Each structure stands twice: as C-alpha cells, then as structure tokens.
Protein: DUF805 domain-containing protein
Amino acid sequence: MQFLKRGLGRLTDFSGRDPRRLFWPYAGVLFLLLFVVMGGVNSTFMARAMTSMQTNAPPNFSLMVGAMGVEMLVFVGLLAAAVARRLHDTGRTAYWGLAPLPFLAFGIIGFSIVVRSFDKPFSGLGTLFVAIFFNNVLYLAALVTLIVLLARPTRPEANRYGEPPAA
Structure:
C-alpha cells in the first residue's frame, strides 16, 4: 500500500519523479474507485429520472451529468500530480498530461447540452452530436498517447526533474 500512501501524500507535489511500480497501482485504485462511485451515484440519478418518466414527466438527467462532471474533476485532481511526476520520470514535461483535458471538458459540456435538450426542440442537435463524436475520437487519441507516454520506462540517468527513483 506504499503506492497509495505516497500518491495521496503528494497530491499537490508536481515536482520530482515517480517510477512505474508506484504510479500504475495508484492510478488503478483511483480508476476502480471512480467506477464504483460513478456507478453508485449515477444509478441513483438514473433511477430517479426513470421514475419521473412513469408519471409522464420529462426525465431530468441534469443532476447525473453534473455529478459525472464533478466526479471526473475529482479524479483528475487526484491523479494530476502523479501523472506529472510519472512524465518527469520519462524525461517529459508535465504539460503532456494536459492534452486530453480540453477534449474531456468539451465532451462534458456538449453532453450536458444534449441531455438538457431531450425534452425540447433544439435545431443544432445533429451538428452538436457530430462535434461531440469527433471530439471523443480526438479525446481517445490524446488519452492513448498519454497512456503510452506514462508506460515508458524510467530514464536511468538524472534529468532536469531530479535523480531517478530508488529501485
């Protein structure tokens, strides 16, 4: 559990280096927690929206979309410093970790607009849907690129971010 203690203890420390053996278990635990929390919270909101449909009221998915946005922000916040340190360990700047974020933000905002327009006519919905689709393709490309960079081996020599992590 050293990886979890280290990751949570250095939430605001964007300097230094983290080896793969500490980063990936920490990221894995955060992913698992994200899916458990999203599943629990979002199923509650979905059940509430479906119940409203039984009374012929339009479903309100706004709370669910808002919760998803908050959940993603918390997840990114918990992972940001660890991603920066892991990128430093491969000799790269932490700015590489920002590549997926604009696409994630556009996707969340666009999806919330689509969800809010379910019960009323919205003439630009088709165009917005296509934009969200291509945004998601770019998001996945940026995310895969980031994952590949995070999976790179530790640079054994000292770099501008510090000495290599102890074995």
